[in-house]
Amino acid sequence: SLFGYLPWFLLITYQALYIAIFAAIYVRLQPTKIGWLGYAAVPAAWVTLQFIRTLGTYAFTWGSFAHTQADNLLVAQIASITGPWGIDFLVCLVNLVLATAVFGPLRKTAPIATACVLIAATCAFGFVSLNTKNTESNAKPIAIIQGGVSAGFDAPPAYTQRAWNIYKSLTTHIAKNRPEVIVWPETSLPADISTP
What we know:
This protein is mainly alpha-helical. The protein has helices spanning 5-29, 31-34, 38-53, 73-76, 79-82, 84-103, 110-131, 159-175; strands at residues 142-144, 181-183. The protein is flat.
């Protein structure tokens, strides 16, 4: 392997600490321990840990609950206000309510009703957002280029020229539509192109 097993083991251990910390927090803040406040405290703790997990050198946004809703356009629209954190909060809350309702000693309907209202409100917002025409005159067309070229960790010598040719061709083609901005993936070329 390229780096050996130890760095991967350390990275996995570091990322797993967030789940362990959340589990410790959950034990103290679950609704069966602190009541109704737990329904807000547990998702808030999850969101806080997820936010912290995105900071620093070893930051990862992978594994966010928001990713599970990427294809659910009605729910995904709330990210325009809350970012992915609002989706994380909602998904955590709904799962907490369901788990408490099914497995918890307190089988109350009020938390389920509250979660249903939040889901309905989120979906209503999403529906309105998706069906409202953008009347802002400052909307600009953009293009995102995806060449589908993979180099892995060790790019073969001819890769850079091949990738450049593919991205140049795609950019030339899309430029005919006159987008305001054309975006390439950060890994499109395995070279430092910031200096001549």
